[in-house]
Amino acid sequence: MEKIYLLLFVALFASHSFAAESKSVSYKSGEDTVQALLYTPAGKGPFPALIVIHEWWGLNDWVKDQASKLADQGYEALAIDLYRGKVATTPDMAHELMRGVPDDRAKRDLRSAFEFLQSQPSVKKDRIGAIGWCMGGGYSLDVALEEPTLAADVINYGHLATDADTIKKINAPVLGLFGGQDQGITPDDVHKFEAAMKAEGKQVDIKIYDDAGHAFENPNNKTGYRAADAEDAWKRTVSFLAQNLKK
Fold this sequence. Notes:
Layout: H1 2-15, E1 21-29, E2 32-40, E3 47-53, H2 61-72, E4 76-80, H3 91-99, H4 103-119, E5 123-133, H5 135-146, E6 152-156, H6 164-167, E7 174-179, H7 187-199, E8 204-209, H8 227-245
Parallel strand pairs: 3-4, 3-5, 5-6, 6-7, 7-8
Antiparallel strand pairs: 1-2, 2-4
């Protein structure tokens, strides 16, 4: 009987998917101390890693869930907080918080996040990527512009660049996911970015979801969430990151 129980326990243990562990961490950014959440996969490292950059709402539960899901895929995921602990609950507050972030401070925070991950013994230093949504999607592009050794970059409906001298700074392969009905980041903007990337010989994979608007991946976006498109975007993200960070 004990042997049967032991076999059942082993089978249960082997089939169980253990969730990633998370812990609060801090790192220096100039004179500031930035708080973040670090999600570590189950198993033995070192792991590839990701800087996870929040929307204009701040480091809320949805972004934390994305970081946890990415850690479940085998990445050490650092969910950073560009708002210094503040989280918006209304669009007006989100807009105010976003406008209140100095651009130089945000870029410094992102650079310091990259350096923090590089300093972790559990991280593969040459396999660090970035991913963001909305405001965070634009900052994800900024990481690619600032960090020549970034290994992968995912931009979810974030601001773009088309200037050749700017594009030349990007070394990381880029996955861009956008909504065809987005009034802020329009399909025309996306096509120009894709053309500029290809003209400079950069690796870029673009998907525009024709019937989706801005922030279509977030179910909290009650009027704009598109479940099927969000599922496809997640699958593309998982495949792209695996191809570039796990090779």
